């Protein structure tokens, strides 16, 4: 028993040391570079995620709306869906159907939207849109206020499509833990945000060590025509 307690205590000390030293390196000694101007999305940037059968085109950023909202046109092929249920902690998100139909899962309920219909997801609400029809969905997605949403979707879809095959669950998780603290407004639907913040604090240094980045210039420029 004493030997076990010694090993356990040593493990706790090593873990605490890793967390403290890792975050000193990650946040203070070798922080991520600030996002350069060229990386911010501009009107016309089009993101394509073939794995999720989705396409975004930037219609307006906070620059065109004086910081009031940002807007994209979203296309979902039949069977397409946003990769994971998620939460935006700092802004509302409104989906408006132009063509086809959209199934919007929101906090355990489903809403079926037809052309001309809209639905707003209040900030802090878990949600995920799907296209369960046999025809393409086209709609407008608006977030208010814009925060860093347009930059986030530009960068995260760049990450998702960097390889010829879909990202593994582990790769997705490591990137999510890094970007959740960097952008500070998009989280997975579960576990609770408070738990994710703790996990991000613990895991982000490992993500950095493994070569993950919250943003890359090439992940913005690849979507620019």
UniProtKB/TrEMBL annotation:
Keywords noted in UniProt: Membrane, Transmembrane, Transmembrane helix
Record field: transmembrane: 7-29
Protein origin, superkingdom: Bacteria
Cited Pfam families: Cupin_2
Domain Cupin type-2: from-to ranges: 74-137
InterPro entries documented for this protein: Cupin_2, QDO-like, RmlC-like_jellyroll, RmlC_Cupin_sf
Protein name, as recorded: Cupin domain-containing protein
């Amino acid at each position: 028993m004493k030997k076990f307690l010694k090993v356990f205590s040593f493990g706790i000390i090593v873990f605490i040391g890793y967390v403290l030293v890792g975050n000193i390196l990650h946040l203070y000694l070798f922080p991520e570079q600030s996002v350069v101007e060229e990386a911010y999305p501009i009107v016309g940037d089009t993101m394509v995620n073939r794995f999720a059968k989705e396409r975004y085109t930037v219609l307006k950023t906070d620059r065109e709306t004086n910081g009031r909202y940002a807007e994209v046109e979203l296309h979902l092929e039949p069977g397409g869906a946003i990769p994971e249920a998620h939460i935006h902690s700092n802004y509302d998100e409104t989906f408006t159907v132009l063509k086809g139909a959209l199934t919007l899962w929101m906090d355990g309920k489903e809403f079926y939207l037809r052309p001309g219909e809209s639905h707003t997801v209040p900030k802090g609400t878990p949600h995920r849109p799907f296209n369960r029809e046999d025809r393409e969905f086209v709609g407008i997605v608006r977030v208010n206020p814009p925060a860093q949403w347009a930059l986030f979707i530009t960068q995260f879809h760049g990450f998702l499509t960097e390889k010829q095959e879909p990202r593994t669950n582990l790769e997705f998780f490591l990137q999510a833990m890094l970007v959740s603290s960097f952008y500070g407004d998009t989280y997975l639907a579960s576990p609770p945000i408070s738990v994710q913040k703790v996990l991000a604090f613990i895991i982000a240094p490992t993500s950095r060590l493994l070569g993950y980045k919250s943003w890359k210039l090439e992940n913005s420029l690849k979507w620019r025509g």
